[in-house]
Amino acid sequence: MKQLMPFIIVIVFFVLIAIFILALYNYRLKKRIIDAGPLDETGLKFLAQLSGSGNEAVKWGLLLLSAGIGFVVLEFVPFSAEDSPVPYGIEMIFIAAGFLLYYLFLKKQKNSNTL
Predict the structure, then answer these.
(1) Assessment of whether the complete model's pTM goes beyond 0.70
(2) In sequence order, what DSSP letters do the residues of 45-73 get, joined into one string?
(3) d(Cα 50, Cα 30) in Å, to the nearest integer?
(4) How far is Cα 109 from Cα 33, in angstroms, rounded to an integer?
(5) Phi, then psi, of 78 in degrees rounded to 5
(6) What pLDDT digit, counting tens, does each position of 73-98 carry?
(7) Half-sphere exposure of 110 (CA within 13 A, CB side)
(8) Residue-wise DSSP of 63-105
(9) At what angle do helices 41-51 and 5-35 cross, to 10 degrees?
(10) 70, 91 in Cβ contact below 8 A?
């Protein structure tokens, strides 16, 4: 696991930079569209699409929470770090559970919006 940590840190660093750059360019694009003048219906739809649904924070929060719980559980599970694929399996199960919770959240939100 100690050999894997620098690799994970580099990946997380580049992902955070990419997220920041995307947010910055989305902001600049929205600002240019709004400053261009009155918008027609197509422009409003495009602007709403750029804004997103606002559920990104919930998705990443649930995903990171479930991954963190998976790491905590790994502390209490006995396994051989050299030969065992158990830690990877346990962590993937918890990450998949986070995605499943997010899917159920979106489904519930969609049902409450249609009523």
Answers:
(1) no
(2) HHHHHHH--S-HHHHHHHHHHHHHHHHHH
(3) 7
(4) 29
(5) -80, 130
(6) 988 888 877 778 888 899 999 999 99
(7) 7
(8) HHHHHHHHHHHHHHS---TTT--HHHHHHHHHHHHHHHHHHHH
(9) 160
(10) yes
